[in-house]
Design a protein that fits this description.
The chain is of the alpha/beta class. It is 46% helix and 15% strand. Bound molecules: nicotinamide-adenine-dinucleotide (NAD).
């Protein structure tokens, strides 16, 4: 058995990658695959650690960065790029591994990867960020760690459409060609991005939670009524994933009673208006002092607010052995990657808390990234060919019905029936279908065997089964 030193350390000591390995091992026990195959699926295939110089002001600064391809059982490998001073090799490996399993859970035909650049984007000017992003991309090009059929990055913590546009442009400069824009997803729509990608992870979080709370049998065990209406929700992290999750959950009828950011938290027992808070933060630079809410000075206290659904949407290790016993929620909805440590998971599970695991719940981003990649390779916007034709057929049908019954249909209903699907309709519909399908798959796996403790294990088993099937069908190259 060949395992590198880092993997041994991760197994022995507390590390994020070690946590993912433990979750994997727990699930692997419920499968019957050969040990060697499980090891191939579990560990990271390629780890690229780089250092490169960047001119910042009149100084030269050395930036440390990573790209990890956890699995290439399907190509391209796929995963976001994180900009944070907390980036480590261990973290990037863990996130890359989660990407492999996440793609498998939602049937996105990609391997898993992740990138990290150890900088504080809040302390960089736009020009410095552009220099760092372009140089990082050039380093990936040099070592063949990026390309439409090789490895396709996307946004993650600290990055967004702007950085993705710089990556696409830099890649195209080295590899001109008609498919170059498929080297990265999460781009602005003007640069080959797809409508609905920015909000996709939050929308997927919403679909996942909505589906979970709709099942009466499961809600009864939590002493909750089925449905989102009136559910009290606390959200940690008000960035891309946190904001959109909160917004869709509010639209779905839930009350967002607290939002936590790194500078503090706000609390309104009756629920706050997510867009008003967003506007307030944009204008004042902080979520604190929002006029309709009470400030919570210590942001971590917000996690302990009594609620029905707690949505950690910031970073990993937020629910840990130190605070898990004080968490007063019925459901933890893991919008962030790795927000719950295994120790916290044990405490929460003993308290009867249901955990909707990250590798399922935040898969909306990669699902819509897959749609963007397909769009880039097919060079046509979804809905472009069929929209008007569908509208013509539907309109003709409605007119025939009206003629037949001798009565005009309600205008609102008529508009819904005759509308032809555009890109956003198709993206949202594909995302909704993906999240619902995946939820029932992992729930069924959990329910099939009473020894399977939770949905996370169900999701890992689902992923292992699919990846193992792929390897077994491929065969092992001599
Ligand atoms: P982001 O940078 O847009 O937002 C993160 C927010 O969390 C920031 O506003 C930051 O200030 C806040 N934050 C940081 N530490 C905090 C703390 N201790 N308490 C409260 N708030 C804190 O990042 P994002 O893209 O929203 O990513 C958030 C999480 O979701 C990460 O774990 C990421 O890996 C995961 N994720 C993101 C995507 C995506 O499409 N962006 C997809 C899947 C998973």
């Amino acid at each position: 058995m060949l395992i590198d030193d880092e993997d041994i350390v991760a197994q022995r000591e507390h590390s994020f990658f070690g946590d993912v390995i433990n979750y994997f091992d727990r699930a692997a026990k419920f499968t019957k695959y050969p040990q060697g195959l499980l090891e191939q699926i579990k560990f990271c295939n390629s780890v690229y650690r780089m250092r490169f110089p960047v001119r910042i002001g009149d100084k030269i600064e050395v930036v440390v960065a990573y790209r990890v391809e956890h699995s290439q059982h399907k190509l391209p490998a796929k995963g976001g790029i994180r900009y944070s001073t907390a980036v480590t090799q261990d973290e990037v490996k863990a996130l890359a591994a989660l990407m492999t399993f996440k793609c498998a859970v939602v049937d996105v035909p990609f391997g898993g990867a992740k990138g990290g650049v150890k900088i504080d984007p809040k302390k960089c000017t736009e020009l410095e960020l552009e220099r760092i992003t372009r140089r990082y991309t050039a380093e990936l090009v040099k070592k063949n760690f990026i390309g439409p059929g090789i490895d396709v990055p996307a946004p993650d913590y600290g990055t967004g459409p702007r950085e993705m546009a710089w990556i696409a442009d830099t890649y195209a400069a080295f590899n001109p060609g008609i498919d170059a824009s498929a080297c990265v997803t999460g781009k602005p729509v003007s640069q080959g991005g797809i409508r609905g990608r920015t909000e996709a992870t939050g929308r997927g979080v919403y679909y996942g939670i909505r589906e979970a709370v709709s099942i009466s049998e499961d809600m009864k065990k939590l002493k909750l009524t089925p449905g989102l209406a009136g559910k009290k929700v606390v959200v940690q992290g008000f960035g891309n994933v946190g904001y959109w999750s909160a917004k869709f959950l509010q639209q779905g009828g839930a009350d967002i009673i607290a939002i936590a950011e790194y500078e503090g938290a706000i609390y309104v027992p009756k629920g706050l208006d997510v867009d008003e808070v967003f506007k307030h933060r944009k204008e004042s630079g902080s979520i604190l002092n929002y006029k309709k809410a009470k400030n919570i000075k210590n942001t971590n206290d917000a996690l302990e607010t009594e609620c029905d659904i707690l949505v950690p949407a910031a970073l990993e290790n937020q629910l840990h052995s130190g605070n898990a016993a004080k968490i007063k929620t019925k459901i933890v909805a893991e919008a962030a990657n790795g927000p719950t440590t295994p120790e916290a998971e044990k405490i929460l599970t003993q308290k009867g808390v249901m955990i909707l695991p990250d590798l399922f719940l935040n898969a909306g981003g990669v699902t819509v990234s897959y749609f963007e990649w397909l769009k880039n390779l097919s060079h046509v916007r979804f809905g472009r060919m069929g929209k008007r034709y569908d509208e013509f057929i539907n309109k003709t049908l409605v007119e025939s019905i009206e003629k037949g019954i001798g009565k005009k249909l309600d205008v609102k209903a008529k508009n819904v029936i005759t509308h032809g699907a555009d890109e956003l309709d198709l993206v949202n519909s594909g995302l909704e279908e993906t999240m619902i399908q995946a939820y029932y798959e992992i729930r069924e796996i959990r329910n099939k065997n009473k020894n399977i403790p939770d949905l996370r294990t169900g999701a890992f088993i689902s992923a292992i089964d699919k990846i193992a099937a792929s390897y077994l069908a491929l065969g092992i190259f001599p």
